[in-house]
Structure formats: structure tokens, C-alpha cells
Amino acid sequence: xxxxxxxxxxxxxxxxxxxxxxxxxxxxxxxxxxxxxxxxxxxxxxxxxxxxxxxxxxxxxxxxxxxxxxxxxxxxxxxxxxxxxxxxxxxxxxxxxxxxxxxxxxxxxxxxxxxxxxxxxxxxxxxxxxxxxxxxxxxxxxxxxxxxxxxxxxxxxxxxxxxxxxxxxxxxxxxxxxxxxxxxxxxxxxxxxxxxxxxxxxxxxxxxxxxxxxxxxxxxxxxxxxxxxxxxxxxxxxxxxxxxxxxxxxxxxxxxxxxxxxxxxxxxxxxxxxxxxxxxxxxxxxxxxxxx
Length: 292
Fold this sequence. Notes:
With about 290 residues, this protein is an alpha/beta fold. It has helices at about 15-25, 40-55, 95-105, 120-130, 135, 160, 165-170, 185, 195-200, 205-220, 230-235, 280-290, and strands spanning about 1-10, 30-35, 60-65, 110-115, 140-145, 180, 190-195, 225, 240-250, 260-265, 270-275. It is globular and about 45 Å long.
């Protein structure tokens, strides 16, 4: 059994909701708490709570930071939050997510794995404000970075870094017992058409009906689904990825390349980045766990 904390920008892209659904159903997971990050974090907390309620799980949830350590020119809002009117949920106000995370980490030393699947603002602030947090964690797994050979169309495609480059730099520079990163070029291997996704993950339970309700705005706009965030969660419990150790640098000054990430392989590095994924194994694990 793994003790897990989830930091998420749930409420827009459907893969955050699928990641949460997986954690709620994974028998090896003990979900100790959820923090939300990015614009309108209160609504994001309500979405997370609504999904948890579909499986009658009372998970502590804190609406975290909605502004960034390094200003960016947008304030993202959760497009899927319009579906809240259809689902029971508690009401949240912004609170101190880093303090909440640290309290749980210090009460469970060397036992907690923190998952970051949004911009890194809450997590970076945790490490800045509470220097002991990093050494008390069992592990940190994040969806962040791009280390592919082809340039991205725009820097914002590397969203979790671009959405707060300074926070991303702080997190990538932090030494943790296990510090694993699932980057964009690996998660992009897990892209399927929206119709295919609905076939693999039928909305035949309250949990999956909620996931698709909160994610339909994204699916209709994109016409496809990439399993960025679920891969982070699955990789904690199952060896579906291969990793390479090294260091990561983040661009925090040059506007045209803001948030860009660069990896240098080093045996003594503090970060392990995923290099490949077993697609069949991943899909089999995710689908069988969620629909059981």
C-alpha cells in the first residue's frame, strides 16, 4: 500500500479526472489528500470532491494557489466546472495547500509519494517554505517537461512547466529520495481518438459518468485524449516505464522559450525522466482498474 498525495489542476483536461479515478480504484493506493492548483482552484477542488463522492470516498481536499511564482499572461479557468450543477459536491475556498501537504508529509515521514500533475506552484512553494519536506518524502512523481528531438509548436505546449517556469525550476532542482518525471514526448505515445477512449472506458458507473461529464468540454474541443496524468499514477504502482537519471534545467528568462526544459544524463543526477512506456501494459492496467 502506497500513501499518496495528489496535486492537480483538475477541471479542464479530462486526463486529470482519469488520473484521480485510477487512484480512487487502485487497491494499492491510500489517497491521503488532494490539493488543487491554477486558476479558480476552488472550482477545481469542487470537481475533485464530486468525483470522490461517486465512490463514497471522503478525501481531504484543499483549494491551493491560483497565482504563480513567475507571472504568465493567462489565468486558466476550469472549463469542465460547468458540470458541477449535476453532481453533489462540497464548496471550497482557497486555503494553504503547501501547509496542508507538509502536515501530512511530516506526520508520515518517508512514507508519502507526492504526485504533481498541474503547474508546480503548490509544490515549489512547499519546498521553499518547508525545507524539510523534500527529505521527508518517499518520492515525487510529476508530469512535466519535454525532452523530444523536435521543437514544440509553442512553449505553452509544455504546459506544466510554462504555466509557472520558476516553480518548475525549483521542483526540478530539488533532491528527493525518488524523483521521477513523465515528460510530454512519452505521454504523447498514449494518444487515442475520443471515440476510442469512450469505448475503452465506458461510462457505466457513477465514477466514469462524472469523469466524462467534467471532461466532455475538453474532448469535444480536442477530439482526442492523451493519457498524460494517468501514466504518472500508474507508473508508481507498475513498472510500465523505463527511466534515465540526470539533471533538468528550466528556461526562466528568455520569453520566446519560457519554461523550456533541457535534460543532461548523469549517473549522480537528482531526477529520473521516463524514456519509454509499454503502451499495452499501461492501457490494460488502467482500464481493468477503473472499470472493475
